[in-house]
Amino acid sequence: MLSKRIIPCLDVKDGRTVKGVNFVNLRDAGDPVELAWNYSRQGADELVFLDITATVERRKTMVELVKSVARQINIPFTIGGGINEIADADALLNAGADKISINSAAVRNPALIDELAKAFGVQFVVIAVDTRNVEGTNVVHLNGGRIPTEKETLSWIIEAESRGAGEILLTSMDHDGTKAGFDTTLLKLVNDTVKIPVIASGGAGSVQHFVDVFEQSNVDAALAASVFHYGEILIPDLKKVLKQHDIEVREL
């Protein structure tokens, strides 16, 4: 059985890690390079860095940050934000990133998924999906959750997989930052539908929430931010509890 992955997520704005609730009311959570080093030592399986204002401000993702992180850690990390073309992804890969994550650019230009998968390999391409329930339908949102689209979430994920997405990072905006638990119902639906790995995001508030998401949806990985950034959950403690529930995890 493949080990379930625990992935801290660092939302980066102006070179600092930030965290909000339902994608708003951001507050500072520390230096991203220091946090990355700390998580690597704690036993995180991977890291995700999202330059959360890159798309909105039409900025390119911070290549220098990627270089700094790559020098400090020895676990895989994904970077996203403002990646609109092959050249953007190429620069990040050369700087040391293991995978890139695209969201808004993929929705606006789905062929970009095909191009990235062809250029770098399926395993390099993570499609991030920000979803919110709108009148009973899960709808894809863009630009850090600011803009609703006409795309239904599951159908978009199926299309992304068919185009060459290697992994889906699915964030429930309704759950994000609430610490009320992951959207296990939606996650199970997606995970049962696609063959590629699914990362659960949005809502982690306790160790039990991680147990629940793995037991109830069988996703490949669970991602969280504030509970790790503010020391509310320590990764070694989390993995110990998961093992007690017979959930396979990689140890230090």
Describe this structure in words.
- With 252 residues, the protein is α/β, with parallel strands linked by helices.
- It has helices at 32-42, 63-72, 86-95, 104-108, 111-120, 153-163, 184-193, 207-217, 226-229, 235-244, and strands at 5-13, 16-21, 24-30, 47-51, 77-80, 99-102, 125-134, 137-142, 147-152, 167-172, 198-201, 221-224.
- Strands 1-4-5-6-7-10-11-12 form an 8-stranded parallel barrel, surrounded by 6 helices.
- Strand 1 and strand 2 form a beta hairpin.
- The chain is globular.
The run of helices and strands is EEEHEHEHEHHEEEHEHEHEHH
Overall geometric form: globular
Question: How many H/I helices?
Answer: 10
Instruction: Specify the biggest β-sheet.
Output: 8 strands, parallel, barrel
Number of strand elements: 12
N-C termini distance: 18 Å
Round the mean pLDDT to the nearest integer and report it.
91
* Low-confidence residue ranges: none
The secondary-structure class comes to: alpha/beta
Strand content: 25-35%
Q: What is the topology, as strand order, of the major beta sheet?
A: 1-4-5-6-7-10-11-12
Summarize the structure.
This protein is α/β, with parallel strands linked by helices.
Descriptors:
252 residues; eight-stranded parallel barrel
Summarize the SSE layout with pairings.
Elements lengths: L4 E9 L2 E6 L2 E7 L1 H11 L4 E5 L11 H10 L4 E4 L5 H10 L3 E4 L1 H5 L2 H10 L4 E10 L2 E6 L4 E6 H11 L3 E6 L11 H10 L4 E4 L5 H11 L3 E4 L1 H4 L5 H10 L8
Parallel strand pairs: 1-4, 1-12, 4-5, 5-6, 6-7, 7-10, 10-11, 11-12
Antiparallel strand pairs: 1-2, 2-3, 7-8, 8-9
